[in-house]
Structure formats: C-alpha cells, structure tokens
Amino acid sequence: MTLQERTTTLAARTESATKIYGSGDTEVHALRAVSVGFVKGQFTAIMGPSGSGKSTLMQCMAGLDRLTSGETYIGDVALSTLNDKKLTLLRREKLGFIFQAFNLIPTLTARENITLPLDLAGSEGDQDWIDEVIKTTGLADRVNHRPNELSGGQQQRVAVARALATKPEIIFGDEPTGNLDTRTGAEILDFMRRAVSELGQTIVMVTHDPVTASYSDRVLFLTDGNIVDEMMEPTPDSVFDKLKHLGD
Amino acid sequence: MLKLTLRNIAASKGRLLLTVLSIVLGVGFVSGSFVLADSLRTVFDKLSQDIAAGSDASVRAIEPEFSTGDNQLRFDESVLAAVSSVDAVGEFEGGIGGFEQVYTTDAAGEVVRPQGPPVLVFSWAGESQLSPFTLVDGVAPVGQQMAIDSAQAEQGGFQVGDSVEVVNPTGRLEAFEISGLIEFPTPGAYFIVFDLPTAQRLLNAQGQLDSIVLAATEGVSTDELVSNVSAVLPAGIEVVPSEVTVAETQADFGSFISIFGNILLGFALVTLFVSIFIIYNTFAILVSQRTKQLGLLRAIGASAAQVRWMVLGESVVIGLFASLVGLFAGLGVASLLKWLFSLGGGAFPDGPLELRARTIVVVFIVGTLVTVLSALVPAIRASSISPLEALRDGDRKTRSVRFRIIAGSVVLIPGLVLLALGFTGAGGTTTSVLTFLGLGSVLTFVGVSMLSALFAGVAASAIGRPVQSLKGTMGRLARDNASRNPQRTAATATSLMIGLALITGVSVLASSIKSTFQDLVADAVAADLFIFDESQGLPFSSVLVDELQTLPEVGEAAGFIEMRASVNGSIDGVTSFDTAVGSAIINIDLAEGTSDVGEDGVALLVDDAADLGLSVGDEVAVEFEDGAQTTLTLKGLYESNSFIEGQWIMDRALTRQHINVDNVDFVGVAYADGVENEAARSAVEQVTGGFPQLTVLDNTEFQESVEGQVNSILYVIYGLLGLCLVIAFFGIVNTMALSVIERTHEIGLLRAVGMTRRQLRTSIRWEAVIVTVFGSLLGIGMGVLLSFAGIKAIPGDFITSTTIPWVSLVIYIVLGAVLGIIAAYFPARRASRLNVLDAIASA
After folding, report:
1. Theoretical Cys-Cys bridge with B264: which of B33, B171, B198, B321, CB 3.0 to 4.6 Å?
2. pLDDT tens track for B491-504
3. B397 φ/ψ angles, rounded to the nearest 5 degrees
4. Given A84, A103, A106, which is nearest B757 (Cβ)?
C-alpha cells in the first residue's frame, strides 16, 4: 500500500500531535508527538488512565481544541490551517459528536435535535437517510418529544442519530455511555457497532471501560501523552489484562 | 453568614454591575432633583434679598383680587411727595420695572432677535444704599442711554458706547446708547437699567411707580417707619417691611422651584420604579443560578431565615453602595440638567450645587429601601429552597398559574381602581389626584407585570414566529429561548413596558392636543393671519391694531386680550376684542343674540348663563382692575370656543380704558375682498416690521407653530422618560448576559455540532429582539389605554379629538427592537467567544 493510498483510506490522522498546557514549572505535556491514523469504516476506542491525554487527543482531532505543534487531518484537511469559521463548518459537515451527557438542546424536539447540524447549514439533508436513522435507533414514535420527556438512553440514542444524520466522515464519542446504566449503554454501543459494520461509519470514542472498548475493532492505549500500545479485535478480558499491565 | 454574603457579592460583581448602575441612575436622578431645587432655592432666596438690600420697607399698590397678572400694579408718583414728608423716612427711591429685550441690528440692517428669557428692566436714580446695583464701568444712564449687566454685555458682545435697541410702547424699536455696565450681587440674572423718566416712558407708565423703597432715619425702627408712612398713604396703597417683600418674592420663586423640583422628582421616581424590575430580575436569576449552593447550605445546617438574610444582606450592601454612588452622581445630574435647560434657552442663575443633609438621608433611605424591597421576593424564594435541591437537576418548579392570577389580580385591581379614582378627580386636591394616579400606576404596572408572566411565553412564541420563518434554526432557537422562562421574559419586558407606556401615553396626549388644535383652527378661525410674540409670549402694544386697520389691503383686524374683571361680585375671566369685527377673525357660534356687544354690552358662555340664571337683556354690574364700575347689558350667549378663554366677552374699546397698559395678546387679520393674498401679507408685514418681537403666521404656519411648541415640551418629557429606557436597556443587557451564562453548556454544544459564531450571535440577538418587542407592545398597549382614560378624564373639552400617532407607535416598536439588538451585543459577543470545550464541560 503506497502512502497515497494509505492516506486516502484514512478518515483522520495525526502527525506528531503535541499539546502542552501551561508553561514553565506548571507545564503539562498532554500529548507528546502522537502520530496515529484512523481507517475508514473502523470503530476505534481510545483508552488510558485519567490524564493520559486520551480526551485531549480526541478533542484536538475533532477540531474542538488546537495542538501546540504537529498536525491533525480530517480526510486531507489539515485542521491547523482552518480559522474558527471553517473549523465550525467542518464540524458541522464532516464530523459527528456524542458527548457523555446533556447532548441535546432542551428547547428542540428529538427530530429537531437530530437535524440540527443540517438546519444550521440550511440544508435539507438526505431525508430518506434521516428517516432510516430514526427508524434504526427506534425513536420513530418519540421524535416529536422534547429531551426532558425522554429517558437517558433515548436521549443518548438521539445524540447518536444526530451524529449520523449528516453522514459524517468520522464520529467522535466522549464516554458516550458513561452516564447510562449497563443495559442501556449496551444498546447504544450495539447501535454504534452496527453503524460501523452495516453503514460503514467511522467512529472514534474515548472510554475507560473495558466492556465498552470491546465493542470496537481496535483499541489504542495512551499513557502520559504517548500511544503505548494497541489491540485489534478486543474482548473485555483482553482489554482488562492490558490495562492492568499498562504501567509496567 | 455575613462573610458569605460579601463573598457572594464579590463573586458576582460583574453580574451585579448593571444592576448597581440602574439603581445609581435612579438614585442619582432623585439626588439631582433635590440638589438642583435646593441650589436654585438658595440662589433665588439670595436674589430676593439682594433686590431689597439696604431698604427697610417699601410702598406699593394693594393688589386687587382680580388683577391681570401681566400688568404690574402701579400708582401715581405724587405719592413720593407724601412719603418724603414723613420724618421717619431717610433715603427713599421710587422705582418702576418690567420686561424688555435688547435687540441689535446686523450688518444687513436686519433686526437680530435676542435669544433667552425676557430681561428685567429697572429704573435707576443713582448710586445709593437702596440700589442693589453697582456701576462697574462707564456712567449712569440718562435719557437715551441704558446700563446693562456685564454678563449680558459679555454674552451679547456689547460694549460701553454701543447702540442697541429696545421696543417702546408704540411697539417700535428705539435706539439707546450703552452708557455703563452694572453688576448685581446675584450673578446670572439679566438687567437693563434706565433713568426713571425713560423707564416710565418705555413701560408706558408716565408718572407712575411700582414701588418706593425706603430706609428709616437713624434710630427709627421699621415698625415705626411703617406706621408713620402708612398714615400718609392714600387708599389702595400700602407700606410693608422689607422682610415681607423679601419673603413674598422668595415664596413666589420658591413655589415655582418646588413645582419644578417636584416634576423632576416625579420623573426620578418613575426611573427608580423601573429599576425595581431590574433589581428583582437580577436577584431572581442569581438565586436560581445559586440553587445548588443554597441547597447545600441548607443541607449542612443553615436555617431558612439565615438563607433569606444572606440574600437580603446582599441587597442591603448593594443598595447602600449604589446610594452612595448615586448621591454624588446626583451632583452630575444637577449640572447636566442645568446645562440641558440652558441649551433650551432657560438658563438658571449661577450658584454652587448644594448637597443638603436631607438629600443625603432621603437618597440613602430610598436607594436602599428600593433595592431591599426588590430583592424581597427572590430572598423569600431562596429561603424556601430545600436541602434536596442541591442534589437535584433541572429547573425548579415555578409557582402555580392560579397563584399568579390571584396575586396579580390582587395587585392590579386596586391599581385600576386607584387610577379610576385619580382620573375622576376623587379627593378634590391636586395632591390626592396625583397620589391616586401615582399609586394606581405603580400597582397597575406591577400587576400587569405579574400577570404578563402568564402569557409571556405564548406571546414571545407568537412574536418569534416571523423571526423563525425569517432566520430558520437561529430564529427557532431565539424564539424558544425567549419563551422558555416566561417569568424572566415578563420581568425584562416590563421594565421596557413602563418607559414606553409613559412615552406612548404622552405621545397620544400630544397628538390629540395637536389634532384638537387643528380642528379648532379649522372650525374657529376665519382670519388669514395671526400676529403674536411667538418667542416670549408677551403682550404687545395695541397700536399695531390701529395701524393695521388703516391698511386698504386689510379687511378687518382685531386685537385680543385676556383679562379679569369682577362681574356681579364674582371675579371672572374676560376675553376682550374688537367685537364689531371679531366674527371675521374667529367663528363664534351663537346660541342667542350677538357677539357684537359694543361698549355697553357683554356676551356670556351659554353653559354659564344657565348656572348664573342670566338671559339676554339682563344687566350685570362690572368692576375693572382700575376700580371703575359700570353696568353692562347681556347681549349674546355663545358656544364654547377655544380662542375665548374667559367666560365673558367684552369690547376692547371699553376695556382698554380700564387696564394699566393697553396691550393685546394677539392680533387676527382678515384680508380685504379681492386683494391678492401675497400682496396683502406683504402690506401687513410692512407694518409689523416695526415690531421686531412679533411673528406673522398664516393658518398653516400657525398650526405648525403650535405643533412646534407642543413638540418642544414633548422633547423635554421624552428626554426625561428616556432615562427609563436607558435603565430598561441595562435590564435587558443584564438578563441576556445572565441567561447566556446559564446556557453555557448548551452554547458549547451548539458550537460543537456546527453553529458558527455569527449564527450564535444572530440567535441571541433575535432572542433579545423578541423580548423587547414584547415589552414594546405591552408598553404601547398600556400607554394607549392610559392616555385614553386620561383624555376622557380631563375636564371640559380641552381635548376633543383623540388621535393615535400610528407612525410614532411603529417607531417605538422599532426602537424596542433596536434596543434589543444593541443590548444583545455584548452578551452575544461573550457567548460567541466561549471556549467550546469549557462551555461543554460546564453543566
């Protein structure tokens, strides 16, 4: 595989991504020259202890934060070259987000929340696709409800549906099931899994839970701002084992 | 708890800044009103004393009950001889005074009209301890000379030796040389001084005096002087000690200053009232944002009372602080008001600003009380927060609709009742009417504010509908956010409502006055031209009428003067004019008889004829202000006419014999048949050219001139009410800023999923617009209703035509929207600059 071919099949990648908070004595290296690629159609989990830089990596890749040095790409677009407006448009058009909680705008209905990025872009979007997403997420009879009329699991499903609605190049999840009970969390993860396997989506999520990570194709392990290991086809046990020996 | 209170203030000082500012403005206005009124009172008290300085008593004519206010009471100068014969009298000086204006002629030979108020004219016999004036330059005036005060000379660019002009009794300009400059102990008042004979001639009072000021000889008491002089005075003339005249002058000025001060204070209280809503809203929001903290306090053992006192404590500290700042801001407000009035031509005499102890006490009490009262409801609500609330998410439940309806009605209904009482004039006195109206408005506004929370959500949603179709998702979010917290929207909108309600009310009144006047001119006027002193409103010589009547281009000319006379023992208003030609100038609707009453007759307002039991042909006994008595026959009954202010019509040929100065208020001219309008007008203006103070206006110009006068009053009122809008504006900024803080997480989320900064700003801007337009609509509605009630309640037919100034109302709505856009600027900017990650992290 040539370099050219490799980059075209990558949904996102970083080159020597470095992020330093503070300066002098209080300097904290959140990311130390991380270079990593995310292949299209793959479900990746990023794991690591608190302060390992896993959230920073995701946030910088998602255009929510800027690197101190190095570069991150979405497709072929280098994020450091974009101003705030272009970055916002990129998030709107090419990225999807699932946060841990409070993902939804309380004044909008479920459907309006799902189509929010499209509405902000003033675009109709692919209505058939949106209907399909809604159907697949099992929200068909709840779309006209407001978030406070939905359960936590339903709210999170709306968030996933919103992330899918624009057919983004990549979806970022920040502990997307962290706030849910195990059964509801499993439902959401199943759904994310299917979005990758059946719909060909690319998902990168940050998690600290081995069971959650086991839904992915590939797990990246971070400590102290470095990728220290990775694992394909993870299971809860294998991830748990790896985590136990991460510090060794 | 005190420590926590202070910490809370410190922590939220940014959020409290605008609230403090709104209290400062209101309190500053209150303080400024007191300071200005006190300072003026001191200046005028001193002025009154300075006028009488050096004299012990003065001789003057006894004021008949029905003297015509415009005409100075005078007596014959032969009294001087009688006074001089009294041994107790040391120095004495007879004097005369009045009003004049100094005119100049520019290079092109055109008369330059002076700006500012009329100038006091005095006679001056020379330097004496009885004269308040000192000559500072040149010599005393003799004959065709005058002395003027140095301030006026400086302002007008006059120097000793210059030639200036004043209007003489024939209405013509007469040239005088400035012989010297004088100074008066109180700076700022303008004077012109002539020698006594010239002053008498100019004021059309040959051989007459206003007063004789007296100084007692060595060792004679004032009482003795007064009683001795009193013995030699003819009937109708009295001598009074200087303390009495000083006190009278001070009371005259004082009552004017009190009215003026109270009007300012009224506006100040309105402003303060508006800030109540801002304070309330701020505290309500702060308490709701602090719910968790307060719940935690309760959980670890703070009592409900402690929590309540903590919030109230904050309001006390803020109230005290804002009062302190406002107190000194008042000095600035007073200077600003002085400056504004000087721009309008109504300059006040100079004097230091006075901060009396009373002002300090009142300001602190009012400022602190207003703040604490406004925080009372939020404080009570804070104390009802349960410990569990610290753990619970989401909005607190708002109070039930039923509670709101009941509470709102309990406030609104008495408010409306009081307003109705006020409008119908219950209680009889001005104070009681004003109290009813004031208290009624306050309760009505508060009641409407409470009730408006019931429909604020629906209303904001309705107003937001077009915004949504216009602005899509941003409009949708704006609409939802504007209607999601109806209480907050209502309180914010109400602060704007009050200002706009008052402004709208005044606009409707003004436009109704204007349209009433238009109807009146159309109905009542037959004249082609009106001639009057537009800038000063002073009466002028009737010589003009005589001269106009001789012009071939003039068909009819009639002079009108308002005066008073005693008719059958009752002192009534009389409108006197040339009754033979009056009907060519104004349309007089007659119920019976004629308006051409001649020198031996009168006409009476038909409504009063019934009350007085008089009918045409009856005789009435009349006494004029000069004491002359006569019997006149009632020759006609006329319908109400706004040009005829008095209830009686008399002929000018009769009344001119019985008033001190034969002046008229205005002259109406009807052109002769077959004369070109332009030719006729230029002939008339040829004659009036000799009377530089007069303005000649045709029907249309006359209407415009009256509109101009109404407008200039209107602008002052708008200016004063504008402060309410400024405070409401702070309130909107404040609410928007606090709402943005509250929604930080949501904003972060929107930005993350692709809302651009510009879109975010748009959304917040439109949210503010929806709230302010809601407030404008409420205000306009209230204003129209209140003004209609007011117009209905104004007695008689002062306003006969009610007009809604639609254009102005639309402008007010646009103004509200613009205020919203400006108010949203900083909150929107702040929101758009939030760091997306930090925003999302804040829950």
Report:
1. B33
2. 888 888 888 998 99
3. -70, 135
4. A84
